[in-house]
Amino acid sequence: MRVSVSHQPVAVFPGSFDPLHLGHADIISRATQIFPRLIVGILENPNKQTVFTPDERLGMVRSLYANDPAVEVRLFSGLLVNFLQQMRATIIIRGMRAVSDFEYEFQMALMNRRLSPAAETVFLTPKEEYSYLSSRLVREVVTLGGDVSGLVPEPIRSLLEERLRR
Ligand code: PNS
């Protein structure tokens, strides 16, 4: 059966992205092989302390994907399923790195499906070399003077060093 372009599902990759690291970038690249339109949804949560403001995170991720027409980057707040609805998206992309991610991800997927039965979560696994990577570890290593080259995009590495090593 052929599916017309207008019926191709739109996918959202939600997260805090504080900061985006190469594991995220790998998931974005895998997701765009499957879905023709991917919206990276950056959570704007006033109750969560972040290194970068929502607008800074938006600017960083937008500039990385400025030349990729398949990737759109937006901020969202409130329920993810409401954002999906606004974007006319039905797919939630999440990265699954290891068994330790499973419980949290499983709970979120089922809660999102309960809130919106149309929401389908698709889990993608990053390259092995990024399977231990998290934004929290990246922030910690940079704060303590370690080198995160090869783990985050270069422009983000310099912004992180500037921000965390003052
Ligand atoms: O990368 P993160 O920080 O683990 O992403 C978590 C995120 C943004 C996907 C999650 O916190 C979220 O969807 N927040 C929006 C609020 C919401 O919808 N909560 C109910 C989901 S179960």
Task: Explain this structure.
With 166 residues, the protein is of the alpha/beta class. The chain has a single domain, classed as 3-Layer(aba) Sandwich (Rossmann fold). The protein is 41% helix and 17% strand. The protein is built from 6 helices and 5 strands. It has helices at 22-34, 54-64, 80-86, 99-115, 135-143, 154-164; strands at residues 10-15, 37-43, 71-76, 91-95, 120-124. It has a 5-stranded parallel β-sheet with strand order 3-2-1-4-5. The model has no long low-confidence stretch (mean pLDDT 95). The site of 4'-phosphopantetheine has 9 residues, from strand 1 and helix 4.
- Portion of residues within helices: 40-55%
The name CATH uses for the topology is Rossmann fold
- Associated small molecules: 4'-phosphopantetheine
From the N-terminal CA to the C-terminal CA, the straight-line distance is 58 Å
Strand residue content: 15-25%
**What is the element string, with H for helices and E for strands?**
EHEHEHEHEHH
Largest sheet: 5 strands, parallel
CATH class: Alpha Beta
Poorly predicted regions: none
Classification by helices and strands: alpha/beta
CATH architecture: 3-Layer(aba) Sandwich
Shape, per Cα inertia axes: globular
Mean pLDDT across all residues, rounded? 95
Please state how the strands of the largest beta sheet are arranged side by side.
3-2-1-4-5
The number of helices is: 6
What is the number of beta strands? 5
Estimated radius of gyration = 16 Å
Can you tell me the CATH superfamily? Answer: HUPs
Number of domains: 1
